[in-house]
């Protein structure tokens, strides 16, 4: 495993911190906007910034559109709704990591990839951890939110499988297709399922605007672009496992800013899930040498 330099390690910790605080920003956003509409606003900002990188890829558009629909619009619409329904953001941060074991399972079923016992153990450990944290009393009060977060992780994993079929895709080009392919999905869902969108814009405050801009500019654009740069510089097995620190930052920020309270179930379940995810990511990096999207 190639050792990450001290400067790049600090950069990776900053990326994780940005991703970690993004959960707080999302929660503040869905408290002020209808949740699917909040996702629409985030992706609209991203789409406008990265419009110059929107390019047609002959022979690969099917996979890009599948990725945009599943890892973009559908995943984030469900995830934002789950955040709105959840009272405990720490559980959201941990359960959201199930996208990685879901993607590994789908790779076996759809792409015919083979996994050894270590990744199988990581998958079992990750899911078992979410089961443990699900018995936290605060989580049980809003179990529908946790269920939607798990569903969003599965939907996003379908998109990850599609992304694996696209070659030489850089970060900004990926962001462009995820954004513009997702906007029609967001728009249809928010019109169909929600109301109060115009009123929420009329009553927008600095916190609401800041939450949307933070998620778009810092979590989506800055953090993902910086992460892709590190993935191109180092082996995935050296960089990707450290992204499990993103949820650790999320838990810390949720306690600090949102008043989350941890009990032994949250701690044990969180350690189990993040350990399982780290094992999967590390072994996949060694086996395939391919990157992952990282937290969202």
Tally of DSSP β-strands: 0
Provide the residue-averaged pLDDT: 86
End-to-end Cα distance:
26 Å
Percent helix: over 70%
What fraction of residues sit in β-strands? under 5%
Total helical segments: 14
The 3D shape can be described as globular
Structural overview:
Residues about 285-290 have low confidence and may be disordered. The protein has about 300 residues and is mostly helical. About 75% of the residues lie in helices and about 0% in strands. The radius of gyration is 18 Å and the shape is globular. It has helices at about 5-30, 35-50, 60-85, 90-95, 100-110, 115-135, 135-140, 145-165, 170-195, 195-200, 205-235, 235-240, 245-260, 265-290. It has one domain. The chain has 14 helices and no strands.
Characteristic terms for this protein:
77% helix, globular, mainly alpha
Write the layout of secondary structure elements.
Elements: H1 6-30, H2 35-49, H3 61-85, H4 89-95, H5 99-111, H6 117-134, H7 137-141, H8 143-163, H9 171-193, H10 197-202, H11 206-233, H12 236-239, H13 245-258, H14 264-288
